[in-house]
Amino acid sequence: MEGAVKTMDFVHRFLPAPQPEGAPTLLLLHGTGGSENDLLSLGQALLPGANLLSPHGKVLEHGMPRFFRRLAEGVFDQEDLRFRTGELADFVAEAAERYGFSAERVIAVGYSNGANIAASLLLRQPERLAGAVLFHPMVPFVPETLPDLRGRGIFIGAGQNDPIVPVANTEELAALFRQAGAEVTLQWQRGGHALTQAEVQAAQTWLKQGRRA
Ligand code: MLT
Fold first, then answer.
1. 110: Cβ below 6 Å to ligand 1?
2. DSSP 8-state symbol, 56
3. Residue from 64, 69, 138 to probe ligand 1 pocket by mutation (most atoms less than 8 Å from CB)
4. Is residue 102 part of a domain?
5. What is the domain-level CATH number for residue 151?
6. Residue 166 beta carbon below 6 angstroms from any ligand 1 atom
7. Dihedrals φ, ψ of 37, to 5°?
8. 162 is catalytic
9. Cβ(194) to ligand 1 under 6 A?
10. Would you say residue 213 lies in a domain?
11. In the predicted model, is pLDDT for residue 1 greater than 50?
12. How far, in Å, CA of 129 to CA of 145, rounded?
C-alpha cells in the first residue's frame, strides 16, 4: 500500500517474562550510538518479572543509531520527531499483538535520546504508556495542549552537572508532566550525563513499589 510503513521492520529484541501472563512490558530505548542489546540487562535488573521489548533506533547520525534526527546538540528536527514518535507507537501496538503482551501495561525505560523519544510519546500519545523511567531526558517539545497523564507515574533520573541537559530543562520537563497530571519522581545525582548505579537503584525501588500506573 502506498505510504504504508512497515513498523515491525524495527530491528528489535523481545525477551518474554518468566511468567508472561499479565506481566508488564518494559520498552527499552537506548541512547545515541546504542543498540537494541544495550539496555537488556538494565531492564532485567529494573523489573525482573517484565517482558522486554527493545527496538533499535532507525536514524543514523554519522553511523550512530538514534530514535529521531537532530539539527544540533539539543536542537531537534521536530517534523522527524513527530513522525518517529508515531512510528514507535505503532511498533509497540503491533508488537503487543505479535508477542501477546498487554498494550496497557507498557512502561518506557529510556536513556538520553531514548528518554527523549519516550517523553515525546508521553506528550503525544499518552495512552500508549502506563508509565516511564526516563534517564537524563530533556524537553522534546512543548505541546500546545497538555496531554492527560493522570494516573501515570514518571521517574526522572537527572545529573546536576549534566553537560547536555541543563538543570532548568529537566525541571521544565518535570513541571510539564506534573501539569499534565502525572505523578513525577525526580531523582537528582551529582554526576553528569552518564547513567549512575544510584539512579538505577532508585528507579528499581520506584518500579518495585509499583509507583507506575
Ligand atoms: C538527543 O539528541 O536526544 C539528546 O541531545 C541526547 C543525546 O542523544 O545526546
1. no
2. P
3. 138
4. yes
5. 3.40.50.1820
6. no
7. -90, -20
8. yes
9. no
10. no
11. no
12. 18
